[in-house]
């Protein structure tokens, strides 16, 4: 095991480039999945006729599929249907679709956790359904769902390692190239594990600070 050779400036720089790609993937997928997840969750909470049922069926299907299958479908299945897509955007698409389905359930559960008495009191005071949703349900529900959503984002960041299968130059892809030299396998695995741990541990601490006691 050659730790000195494995941690050469060139190798470290190459890994940092991969980490940069991993973070770009994660941040963009987080932003998109949060937007779509909140929208889907709100629609399902509001029980919009037909649309709510259709979205529920789609979300249920996606949540029961492995993310790896979605990545394969986005990268290799869509081109077969005449929809060419780059490795980067196929990864973004798969991650966004999968995480949006997960987040939508967190959002729906968070909104449903708001006490019915508060909703009834708001409606009795003259607020419309949309006003009640916007001024009462969403502020309370969002505070309650922040920790689980951040935890889901941590999972998303770890899941970016799966896009190595589409040869996207993220952290695991670059680590795999360096590990082609067998003397570097153990040192690089230790370093990559440490990088993932530090990033995810930081996010978990953010989630802990954002969490507020529930009564």
From TrEMBL:
Keyword terms, alphabetized: Cell membrane, Membrane, Transmembrane, Transmembrane helix, Transport
Residue ranges that the Swiss-Prot or TrEMBL entry lists as coiled coil: none
Keyword Cell membrane (UniProt): yes
Membrane topology: Multi-pass membrane protein
GO MF: transmembrane transporter activity
Family statement drawn from the similarity comment of this UniProt entry: Belongs to the binding-protein-dependent transport system permease family.
A GO CC term attached to the entry: ATP-binding cassette (ABC) transporter complex
GO biological process: amino acid transport
UniProt cross-references to Gene3D superfamilies, sorted A to Z: MetI-like
UniProt organism field: Paenibacillus darwinianus
Transmembrane segments: 21-42, 54-76, 184-203
Domain ABC transmembrane type-1 residue range list: 19-207
Location relative to the cell: Cell membrane
Name this protein carries in UniProt: Glutamine ABC transporter permease
């Amino acid at each position: 095991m050659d730790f000195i050779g494995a941690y050469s400036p060139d190798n470290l720089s190459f890994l940092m480039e991969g980490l940069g790609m991993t973070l770009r993937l994660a941040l963009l997928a987080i932003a998109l999945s949060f937007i779509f997840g909140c929208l889907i969750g709100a629609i399902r909470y509001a029980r919009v006729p037909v649309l709510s049922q259709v979205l529920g069926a789609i979300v249920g299907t996606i949540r029961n599929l492995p993310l790896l299958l979605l990545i394969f479908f986005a990268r290799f299945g869509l081109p077969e249907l005449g929809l060419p897509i780059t490795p980067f955007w196929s990864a973004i698409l798969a991650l966004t679709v999968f995480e949006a389905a997960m987040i939508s359930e967190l959002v729906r559960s968070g909104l449903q956790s708001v006490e019915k008495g508060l909703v009834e009191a708001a409606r009795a005071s003259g607020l419309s359904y949309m006003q009640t949703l916007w001024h009462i349900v969403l502020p309370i529900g969002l505070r309650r769902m922040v920790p689980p959503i951040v935890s889901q984002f941590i999972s998303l960041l770890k899941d970016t390692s799966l896009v190595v299968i589409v040869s996207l130059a993220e952290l695991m892809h670059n680590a795999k190239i360096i590990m082609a030299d067998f003397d570097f396998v153990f040192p690089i695995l230790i370093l990559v594990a440490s990088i993932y741990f530090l990033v995810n541990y930081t996010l978990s601490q953010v989630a802990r600070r954002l969490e507020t006691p529930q009564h």
